[in-house]
Amino acid sequence: MWGLYLAAVDINSYSTWLEIDLNAIRNNVAKVKDLTGVEVMAVIKANGYGHGARPAAQAAVQGGATWCGVARIEEALALRRAGISCRLLVLGYTPPSKIPEAIDQQITVSLFDPELTHSYLEFARINGGILKAHVKVETGMGRLGMLPEDVPDFLKSLRGGPIHVEGIFTHFAQADEPQSDYTRRQISIFNRLLDELRSADLKPQIVHAANSAAVINFPEAWYDLVRPGDAIFGMAPSPQTPLGSDFRPALAWKARLISVRTYPKGSGISYGSRYVTSGNERIGVMPIGYGDGYRRIDNQQVLVGGKRVNVVGRVCMDQCMLQLDEVPEAKVGDEVVLIGSQGDETISVDEVAARWSTINYEVVCGLADRLPRIYLE
Ligand SMILES: Cc1ncc(COP(=O)(O)O)c(C=O)c1O
Question: Which single residue of 150, 181, 311, 374 could bond 300 by disulfide (Cβ 3.0 to 4.6 Å)?
Fold first, then answer.
């Protein structure tokens, strides 16, 4: 994994790189905090949605996040090793054998299964110390979580032991659909449980539920803390749930032309020679392929000289070819933009996601480790 700060690098020495705007992340976290008025847990799993976990966590904390959420304990431990000292919650599964490290490194784990929790108790007793935990409740996501009716007895059973349940949370399946009745039903199931826990004096201190979509669409689900991921990187959770204009995309993907050549009519371009020039055509090569997380599909575009140009022929592992007739002045060394702006043109992550028939989350999470991440302060 490469992570470099712009001030420390000669950008001309890279043939492709990701530019990550840390100020955008700071700004976006601050916007979420201002909007909701509650604590923010920046969700930075999967290498900070491809942006780089440590710099993303650092920027999120600078923007006002008090927590970071990750999927796996290894991600939390890596953040601790990198000096991130904010509260950390593992949102997914933690193997029991990792509980001693969770205790020692002050990492909070999620509880969603009584048997697994029993193993955690054993490891915690042997290790000594208190394991901090949040209980995850299944209200309609159909993934991980305790059934609401099992939660009160579960919480009672943990009283006085080495697991301190300081939080309770749920996750939404359809919050990116504004006005979704399904989400309202999830909220009301969760609220009913919270009421019951309150009356039995069992309610954990911190209640949370809202991902980016619920930050935007469901203020009633903000509770004590919100858990946005996509929005802090300036990406909209879905086309139906756009971000306000005060959120800024944090990532751009750039490259340089490494070859430009005019091919005569009838020349085959790339594997399978599926693209054949129909006259003299200027063809550029950019050093990016499916080995970088670019998709091996037809009909893709990038920006060169402030204009949209087509990717032609098969995308290779490390390279692909561009039809440059629209930009006759293009030459070796010129900048190519795959995601981001150049001149008056922009290719957004959402546009790329639409071409790839997927969501912006998958585009950024799939950006390969070998792409250097250059951080703009
Ligand atoms: C449990 C949980 N909370 C919060 C998030 C953040 O979601 P989003 O990136 O849509 O804000 C995720 C991400 O998938 C998640 O799994």
Answer: 311
Q: Check pLDDT > 70 for residue 139.
A: yes
Pair (25, 171) in one structural domain: yes
Select from 233, 262, 293 the last residue of a domain: 233
pTM: 0.96
Ligand 1 pocket residues where CB is under 6 Å: 43, 91, 171, 211-213, 227-231, 237
Residue 173 belongs to a domain: yes
Q: CA gyration radius for the chain?
A: 24
Give catalytic status of residue 271 as yes or no.
yes
Residue 10 lies in a domain: no
Q: What is the number of domains present in the chain?
A: 2
Same-domain check for residues 221 and 258:
no
CATH number, position 329 = 2.40.37.10
- Cα separation values, 203 from 172, 195, 312, Å: 20, 8, 59
Asked if residue 173 has pLDDT above 60, the reply is: yes
Active-site residue flag, 45? yes
Whole-number average pLDDT of the chain? 97
Report, as an integer, the average pLDDT of 86-90: 98
Residue nearest to atom 5 of ligand 1 (CA): 211
Whether the predicted pLDDT of 8 surpasses 90 = no
Contact 1, 371 (CB under 8 A): no
Mutate to test the pocket of ligand 1, among 29, 32, 43, 75 (most ligand atoms within 8 A of CB): 43
To test the pocket of ligand 1, the residue of 36, 45, 143, 171 to mutate (highest count of ligand atoms within 8 Å of its CB) is: 171
Q: Which of 5, 182, 271, 331 is the catalytic position? A: 271
Residue-wise pLDDT for 106-134, tens only, equals 999 999 999 999 999 999 999 999 999 99
* 176 & 71 share domain: yes
Region for residue 369 given its phi and psi (left: phi exceeds 0; alpha: psi -120 to 50; beta: otherwise)? alpha
Taking the centre of ligand 1 as the mean of its atom positions, its distance from the CA of residue 211, in whole angstroms, is 5
Catalytic residue among 31, 45, 132, 203: 45
Q: Is residue 336 within 8 Å of residue 302, measured between CB atoms?
A: yes
**92 and 191 co-located in one domain:** yes
Per the listing, tokens 């710099």 go with: 55
Range of the structural domain that residue 315 is part of: 251-347
The residues pairing with 108 across neighbouring beta strands, listed in sequence order, are 89
- Same domain membership, residue 114 and residue 29: yes
